[in-house]
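Hey L., structure's done. Input below.
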Amino acid sequence: MKKILFFALVLLSLTACHKEAVQPKVYGRYVPERKEDFAWENEYAAFRLYGAALKPENPSNGVDLWLKASPELVVDSFYYREHQLGLPYHINYGKGLDCYKVGHTCGCGGLVVLTEEEGVYKTWIGGPYDRWEILEQTPDRFVFRLEYDSLLVAGHILHESLTITAEAGTAMNKAEVVLTDPSPVTHHQLPILYAGGGIYMHDTIDHFEVYDQIGMVFYEEDALSDKQAAQMNYDYNGSTSQGRIYITVQTPEAEITDIQDGNLIAVKPYALGDTLTYFFSATWSEWSDNAEN
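Output:
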């Protein structure tokens, strides 16, 4: 009897260890209940990209940011609170909040295409994605691809294929982008192209840094730079202070690290059909490596 009890306890211990070992640290999914968002998270922040159901609101292909107070996974709970309990995720109830306004911008690490004609630069931001596919999903790694059929660049409609990889243990998301032209005969008519990641600056242009040697740009702002989010948090807890947001974009071998149309960008020369790789991350001053926080 004692032997049976011993083996039962060992089995329970192994099962508990197994559950602990496979506890996911990154996560993502298609969100049909919120106008076809595609959301994902790493240990440091959560993000989303907008789907076609949001087209009437003129969204972009920019990245939205949700702040997290700890490594705890929050995507499903944020959506549940918002859509089932009527508790807006724009308010910090202790786990974090959505306070970063994207609009029709590159947001927090979205793709920026820059054209040059006769020494004049112009930035191009796309619209929502048309199709999605999850390529890999494990407790430590999440990879997905979004396809955009209508990226307007200098009068040309391009196709954008975006693959994003999030991995445990790093705040950085890896973005791999391939742009193609459905009408290849028009390739020679396109102006000079640059592409890479960008950060839309809501607050002030004073809080940024540029590291040309590694193609990196860094920006920080008040977490409640958006007036609507500030008012909602003030109404809830009487304070408009929710700390600072820190955002980084790195485009290896970037030739232009600058501010264009309110975007802090790191871009490099780009030829259609090539794979562009860049990285982006975000953290919050209120984040703590403590799941109980």
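The first helix runs from residue 2 to 21. The first strand starts at residue 27 and ends at 31.

-- N.
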